[in-house]
Structure formats: C-alpha cells, structure tokens
Amino acid sequence: MKILVVDDSKIARMSVIKSLKVVHPDAELIQATNGLEAVEYYKKERPDVVFLDLTMPVMDGYEALKRIKEINKEAQVIVVSADIQSEAKLRVLVAGAKNMYPKPINVEIMVQIFEQDILL
C-alpha cells in the first residue's frame, strides 16, 4: 500500500505517519509539503490513500483535492485539518473527500479511518 501524507507542518506529517506506521507498518509513505507537490506526487506515484491538510502555502488542500479528483475520480482522500468548521467539512465532502478529521490524528482514529472510510 502506498500512502501520501500532505501537510506544510513537519510535526503534523509526523503525527499522521506515526499512527500510520502502527496501523499499516508495511505501507510505503510519501510526503508532500503543499498542495502543488501533492498533485505532482499523486500523478507520479498513484498512492492508494492521501491524507491531506487544507491550509498550506503554494496550493491549499481544497485546490489539491479538486485536482487529485480530476486525475482520478476514485482517489481516496482523507482530510486532516485544524479547520473543524462544518462549512469546511461540507466543502471537502462535496469535492470528493472520503471524510475529514481534526488534527491531531492518533492510532485509534487511524484504525477508525481504515475500518470506515478506506476501501482496500
């Protein structure tokens, strides 16, 4: 399994990766620091799952989600954001995200994501 983790904060990426390594220790993990990098990595690597932040420089997560879904309408994108407003969640779900979770992600939430949201 190949997983792309996108966040401009290294600490936030490491938090997601730490939980991923517990739940899927054999996963190949790719990191991007903004939405533009995420789209480029998505084109090149075709990950099975994308964990995507919303507030980032260069290209935000909303635009990255839109572009990833244009590349592959079946892309499995989980938004992980500090923006927990219901408008933000509705916007990403309408755009095609599988779900949205507040930062930080822990192992229990990661298990829930893979049990409820991700099709493998």
- Across the major sheet, the strand order is 2-1-3-4-5
Indicate the percent of residues in helices. 40-55%
Q: Which segments are poorly predicted (pLDDT under 50) over 5 or more consecutive residues?
A: none
Number of strands: 5
Q: Round the mean pLDDT to the nearest integer and report it.
A: 95
Largest sheet: 5 strands, parallel
**H-E order:** EHEHEHEHEH
Shape descriptor reads globular
Task: Report Rg.
Answer: 13 Å
Number of helices: 5
Strand content: 15-25%
Brief description of this entry?
By secondary structure, the protein is of the alpha/beta class.
Salient structural properties:
single chain, 120 residues, 47% helix, 5 strands, alpha/beta, 5-stranded parallel beta sheet, 5 helices, globular
Structural write-up:
The chain is α/β, with parallel strands linked by helices and 120 residues long. Helices cover 47% and strands 19% of the residues. It contains five helices and five strands, in the order βαβαβαβαβα. The chain has helices spanning 10-23, 35-45, 61-71, 86-95, 107-116; strands spanning 2-6, 28-32, 49-52, 77-81, 99-102. The protein has a five-stranded parallel sheet with strand order 2-1-3-4-5, sandwiched between helices. Strand 4, helix 4 (86-95) and strand 5 (99-102) form a beta-alpha-beta unit. Helix 1 crosses helix 5. The radius of gyration is 13 Å and the shape is globular. The N and C termini lie close together (9 Å). The relative contact order is 0.19.
